[in-house]
Amino acid sequence: MRGVLFLLNALILLESTKGTTYERLDVHDKIIVDKAIEKANRDHGKGKHLDFHIIANRNDNMVNVILRPTSCDKKTPSVHRKECKLQNIAPQVSCIDCKGTMERCLLLRNTDEIQKRKNECPPKYNPGAGHIMFQISGNKQPQTGCVGCV
């Protein structure tokens, strides 16, 4: 019995680490991923087709798409190709869509530049920013005093 439970837990853990496939993405994300595939293959596809691996980060304004080389040769047009197997070799690419625009995709080893781009694209909504404690007056100075006075 213990062995069956162990096997069941291992299978559940394995399934949870698979990640999202291209087919499971919603329409909005597929548009962003397709744009990333096209840009990355144009800029970094050196013989092998680059295709969707994961969406690493997201907020209201930003989606960070990670692409990996596949077993398929590069060809145009660059679109998602489900027959290609992802490979864990270079170049692995990060494409950041910020507010609907996507700059040149970066190699994953450029971690400082990737982080800089992510920081330049903050979320639209800052939780807590509307709280009474963070309100400011017309002269941009924090307000103090009673709640009704602010």
Automatic annotation (TrEMBL):
Record keyword Signal present: yes
Keyword terms: Signal
Q: Which positions carry the signal peptide feature in this UniProt record?
A: 1-19
UniProt KW Signal keyword: yes
The protein's superkingdom reads: Eukaryota
Protein name, per record = Cystatin-like protein
Record the organism.
Answer: Carassius auratus
Its gene name is LOC113118638
